[in-house]
Design brief:
Elements: H1 7-20, H2 24-38, H3 41-54, H4 58-71, H5 76-88, H6 93-109, H7 116-120, H8 122-131, H9 135-155, H10 161-173
Helix pairs in contact: 1-2, 1-3, 2-3, 3-4, 4-5, 5-6, 5-8, 6-8, 8-9, 9-10
Length: about 180
């Protein structure tokens, strides 16, 4: 974490801290204050998206994530945000599948995105493929995710709750509730 050096940045930092501890209304207020100071719509939408997702307001989070993606259709983070929301809202299987394929293509063809991101987000891709009925392709990405996160944990690199959570969630989705 690197603190911001300007007032709107401080407001966003404060909003992020409020968000992390579950004070969603205070987080929204801080993000609105930052927007009032610098009119940075992308940051405002991104922060509001995180707040709505954390508040389990999935329809609003989906609307905001799509608006962010429209602002920059090549944004890796934008694609991932929409995919994450599709995991919570049923009925978007075809859209999620199309977006997952777009994510794969973007990672593979970009000169600016490291290929390891394909492994890092393989669980999201696998889930989108599974929901669309492409179980063989889904299994390939689930296996990729398991291998990636087991390696991270074994090597002691970037170990955090997310690594363990993703590994456990992938195993559980595949029916292995022991690992």
């Amino acid at each position: 974490y690197s603190p911001s050096t300007d007032r709107p940045g401080w407001q966003r930092d404060l909003g992020t801290f409020y968000l992390r501890v579950g004070f969603f209304d205070k987080a929204k207020s801080s993000f609105q204050e930052a927007f009032a100071q610098d009119s940075n719509k992308r940051e405002y939408l991104r922060n509001t998206f995180s707040t709505e997702l954390s508040s389990e307001n999935f329809d609003e989070a989906l609307k905001l994530s799509k608006e962010l993606l429209e602002m920059d259709s090549t944004s890796l983070k934008g694609i991932i945000n929409v995919l994450v929301v599709y995991h919570y809202i049923p009925g978007h299987n075809d859209e999620a599948y199309t977006l997952a394929k777009r994510l794969i293509e973007q990672i593979k063809t970009s000169q600016n995105i490291h290929p390891f991101y394909l492994d890092d987000f393989a669980d999201l891709i696998g889930y989108a493929f599974w929901q669309a009925g492409n179980h063989k392709e889904a299994q390939y990405y689930f296996d990729k995710s398991i291998k990636f996160y087991e390696a991270i944990i074994k090597l002691g690199r970037n170990i955090d709750a997310y690594s363990y959570f993703t590994l456990a969630a992938t195993y559980a989705f595949l029916g292995d509730h022991v690992k």
